[in-house]
Structures are given as C-alpha cells and as structure tokens.
Amino acid sequence: MVTKAKRASNNKWDANNMVVLGCKIKKDKALLFKKVCRAAHTTPNSVFSKAIDRFMQEHEEEASTVMREMLKDIPIIDGANDQECEKDCGGNKPPRPLVSKDEGKDGG
Q: How is the chain split into domains, by residue range?
C-alpha cells in the first residue's frame, strides 16, 4: 500500500507531467475492449500508449514539423543561463529543447 505522502507526491508529479486523453466510444465496445485487455494481461492505457507511439513513428515527418513549430518560440537554454535560472527559477530549470541552436532559429 502506498503511503499518503507518496500518493500526494505521485499526484503532484502527475498533475505537472501527465494529461488524460479521451475519446468517445460506445459503452458495449469499451466494455469488450477492457475485458479483452484484461484477458491479454495488459491495460487500455498500455494499448493506447503503444498505438500513439506507432502512429508517431509512422508520421515522423509531420511530428518533426509540428515539434519544430512548437519549439520555435522557446528560448534556447545554455550554460550561461544556468546561474540566472538557479536564482529566478528556484533551481527548477525548464527542459532543454531537443533541437540545436541553429535548427531552432531557422525552423529547419
């Protein structure tokens, strides 16, 4: 059993890092899907996550384009900013973009 403190910590992490994705589906189909997942020793979440990963791999070019568009307005973090961020962000550094400085600036 998870302690209250651990549950609170997990909930805080989930709130900051996770999102619930949903879709409408007929009740009978959803019930069947859940039962088949259980029979296959998996969960709906696992099936959905794997389907998303497969979809993203199949659409890698579109995903790259969208990601570059999302990241274009995020400032590039480098070592020079670490000390300032330590002071301003309380040590909670934002994630470093997954693009090089050159790639982020020219969109390609």
A: 25-106
